Amino acid sequence: MNLHEMLENSLWGRNLSASELSRVLRECRERPVAAGHAIVRSGEPAEAWMGLITGFGKMSIGAPDGRETTLTSIAAGGWFGEGTLIKPGRSAIWQYDAVALRDCQIALLPRETFEYLRATSLPFNHYLQKLMSARMGQFIAQMSHDRLLNSTARVARCLASLFNPELYPEPKPFLDLRQAELAQLAGVSRQRANMALQKLAEAGLIELERRGVAVLDLAGLRAYLSAS
DNA sequence: GCATTAACACGTA
DNA sequence: TACGTGTTAATGC
Question: Could you tell me the CA-to-CA distances from A207 to A152, A191, A211 in Å, in that order?
């Protein structure tokens, strides 16, 4: 997968006119980010809309005491930063860190290009609405799960949320995801995530593998309740 | 009761 | 060796 392929296959790139697409292809930049390194840093000005060509990453926020929580993950084919980028002028400041969990190839669509598309392309605006709505829906679901479900169910829903096609264009049943990473995403300790995964495996919803999880029953994960 | 942190053993890339 | 996983013990609300 390279930048051009990614743009031409993306949900939004497909619907651009020939001249819009060629401008995007001309102005988009690429940058490799090694696993463990920052893609964007909280507090820095947002200069580009960010896409993941390859790799896997997370959006996270650190507390003053050093603890850290993951807000959501970012998979290949996904874009982020539109919410930050549409803030006016100098108030477009990253409100979170984005960190590469695996080696990543990042696409950077400059802010000016992003603004040009927003100003001229109705399909692009429709795409942005769908993306932002999907993101909002994900966070609403996350909040309600945090408040209403026990931690095993939260881990189940968390796994299921990684299969939203509007946010993660190419979902595969095998997730290359450490238990510690899933724990941060679900907001539980690694030990508790391990226990939850074993329960979900016993229930036949997933298969545990070293360094990852194979999802066997997505609908079952989405509907999982109780069994703490 | 349920979850957290710390610590340790074990197997593998 | 460093990392990922599975377990247990001590502790807190």
Answer: 15, 18, 12
The pLDDT tens digits of the residues spanning A183-204 come to 999 999 999 999 999 999 999 9
User: Secondary structure of chain A: what % helix, strand, coil (to 5)?
Assistant: 45, 25, 30
**Spatial strand order in the sheet of A174-175:** A174-175, A212-215, A206-209
The answer to whether A132 and A83 have CB atoms below 8 angstroms apart is yes
pLDDT, tens digit, 9 for 90 and up, residues A213-222: 999 999 999 9
DSSP for residue A93: B
- pLDDT surpasses 70 at A11: yes
A226 touches strand B (CB under 7 A): no
User: Which amino acid appears at position A140 of this protein?
Assistant: I
Give the C-alpha separation, A75 to A168, whole Å. Answer: 6
How distant is C1' of B4 from CA of A208, in Å? 23
Asked if the Cβ of residue A228 lies within 7 A of any atom of strand B, the reply is yes
Residue A18 has a CB neighbour count (10 Å cut-off) of 7
Q: How many CA atoms lie within 13 A of A219 on its CB side?
A: 0
In angstroms, how far is C10 C1' from A67 CA? 21
C1' (B9) to CA (A145) span, angstroms: 35
**Can you give the pTM of this predicted structure?**
0.91
